[in-house]
């Protein structure tokens, strides 16, 4: 009996482009018996998107945290793919890259695995999701964003409904300049796109030898910080003098006010989020215990000025914690830019 080759679809796109939303929108359009496993890679140590994904019809979700698998975490990606193959035998693996991943490097890694396993895997396509609201801004400052739009089989234009025709034309002009030949498809809001448009591409991008030689020093573009209120126990970090409270002074685990575990008033949370600078802060995601009509735990997903609050299991936070977030943004500016958020909500920076 001939073994089935597992096609791999890779999703790239800058921070906050909407990759997870697009991926999850594909699932209801697939046959009921079609098994998809999602392998996610993200900076930080808060498994936010995996919590969302596990509530979907995915067969399984695996997440690689605290680094980028196109460079420093190459071995972890390969091991994760082998584990997915052996444990689930899926019909397809979807890899969702961190917002600063170089797609060319991943393409070559998957191609090497295809050769070394005798065809157990194959690169089907690389899909780049572009945020139409913010692309013209971050494309000017991020070499990675340009690389993602240049090295791809298909570009999905997301969040285009909320921009003017002139703004959309500007985004399209930039994309055509970067990559004139690649198809550019508009997402249908949260309905995403038809899987038939992006599955079965059988990418040949890895044949471009020059793309593989680019230095993945992109990791320096993004700074990542952990924000918390309450106990930092269980965050998986060395608890030493690296903890910084909202007033800027170093602190250590346990130097928190007695009420630091209490919930955050909903209006205060909304006001704080509305004041964040999307020029220096690109993503804030994690868990917040919120006081509204009732005390509830939510998944917070903030990107470039827009955010969602999705109800979550209270066990996502320990009893003595009320906030656990990962903030991502411009290196050298992020800590200053989130200062007001930390002060208002009483957060510490890890």
TrEMBL record:
CDD domains: CobW-like. InterPro entries: CobW-like_C (IPR011629), CobW/HypB/UreG_nucleotide-bd (IPR003495), P-loop_NTPase (IPR027417), Zinc-reg_GTPase_activator (IPR051316). Transmembrane segments: none annotated. Pfam families: cobW (PF02492), CobW_C (PF07683). Residues 261-330 form the CobW C-terminal domain. GO terms for cellular component: cytoplasm. Coiled coil: none annotated. Residues 7-181 form the CobW/HypB/UreG nucleotide-binding domain. It comes from the Eukaryota. SUPFAM superfamilies: P-loop containing nucleoside triphosphate hydrolases. PANTHER family: COBW DOMAIN-CONTAINING PROTEIN, COBW-RELATED. This is CobW/HypB/UreG, nucleotide-binding domain-containing protein. It comes from Lentinula guzmanii.
